[in-house]
Fold this sequence. Notes:
The structure holds two protein chains of two kinds. Chain A has 16 helices and twelve strands. By secondary structure, chain A is α+β, with helices and mostly antiparallel strands. In chain A, the strands form four sheets. A five-stranded mixed β-sheet of chain A has the order 1-2-8-5-3, covered by helices on one side. Chain A has a three-stranded antiparallel β-sheet with strand order 4-12-9. In chain A, strands 6-7 form a two-stranded antiparallel ribbon. In chain A, strand 10 and strand 11 form a beta hairpin. In chain A, helix 10 crosses helix 12. Chain A starts with 32 loop residues before the first helix and ends with a strand. Chain B is built from two helices and four strands, in the order E-H-E-E-H-E. The longest helix of chain B is centred in the C-terminal third of the chain and has 10 residues. In chain B, 39% of the residues are buried. Classes of the chains: A alpha+beta, B alpha+beta. At the A-B interface, helix 4 and helix 5 of A face helix 1 and helix 2 of B.
Amino acid sequence: MSDALSCPVTGATEPLPEYPLPRAAGCPLAPAPTAQALRAGKPITKVKIWNGSTPWLITRHADQRALLPDSRVSDDDLNPGFPYVNAHRAEIAPVTPRLITNTDAPEHTRLRRTVNGPFVVKRIEKMRAPIQKIVDDLIDEMLAGPNPTDLLKAFALPVPSLVIAELLGVPYDDHDFFQRSSSLVLDGSAAPEDARRASGELVAYLDNLIRQKTATPGKDVLSEMAGRVQAGEMTHAEAVSMGVAMLIAGHETTATMISLGTLALLQHPDQLALLRETDDPKVIANAVDEVLRYLTIVQTGVRRVAKDDIEIGDVVIRKGDGMIFDLHAANWDPEVFPEAERLDLTRPARIHQAFGYGPHQCLGQNLARLELQVVYGTLYRRIPTLRLDAAIEDLEFDHTGTTYGVHGMPVAW
Amino acid sequence: MSMRVELDVPKCVASGQCVMAAPDVFDQRDDDGVAILLEEHPGDELLDEVREAVAICPAAAIRLVDQ
């Protein structure tokens, strides 16, 4: 049952569901059936998480749009009641520097403005040609290499690695180290001591690299941040943490959108054909947003805590209550996306919340969109016979990381 | 009657979504990406793009008002 149209949308909602919610067997790309059932029947309701606490789960698109930009909804994980994703995150919260990922306005606004420069739309657009070259070269290598191959290793992981290395100014020779370390930090099933060691190594590496960039700056993001440190606009520790965060955030997320995006498209040959037969940038851009909507790979929910009482619908979220926003459920909300279970590259998809919503919406979203536009617009035209070289049931999906993913994707052509 | 665009600069988180949606109406500052309103009274032909910018602005910092 790999077709999402036949996937269940009902699941047990009593007793208190445990979050994250499991996907249905045989439906690797659909949201958890219980999340869909809650959205229809109890769109703002309590769930239980790993530490026994019971935050609210918000599943409707409209409720997420109302709450996520609300100044009473806090991203500061030092506030009592914050629903941490796991024990590791709870443990590091008190020793983590103040970042765009754990602060509220006005501190958040200041920090975000110090790191936004490289992601300005016009600057990102200048990366289109270099990204096209990276993608073309990797496809050349893949076509010259073994057939079948693992799309993840041959293509999906190297694309964002090369792009983010170019953006940050990380030497490409250190690329393997980065991929390994960021995987460990992101993998929820990794032993906490391994995750801690990997994160420590990344911090030490970036710390050193930013010092080098201070002495001999280049035209890259780390050099720019080094300049801001010297100008007193941010601290060295903030710059190091932001560098690590950008590196990790840009890697596996984009790789997964390439691997699972290809899987979703291969399952919908009529939609893949639309993409293969167009060179209209607007059609390709909308296709990317629709695949982002359909897959919504963030699977641990966006976590927040109430700084004050909030009335919404017929519930009152009390000060100190945790909140979890299930983005996948919202992106399959039929009130916004009719027949949401259909992958339809021509539907208006732009209002999806795959990158979150509110002031913390993904910093790298414009770069991610650009990478995916180049990949989706190139890969299937260059390799029109691309096919999955395994039964979908035999693929091993990552149900534990912050983002969903697949451990290897054999393809042939 | 024309429509007026209001941009709440202090709320702007510089995601650039308005520039993607309506490049003739919005731009961004080079250094920090904060939105710049290029056209306070956009022509009718631009209003659909501005409405999309209003809808996708993650900071809810843009309004399109009748005046």
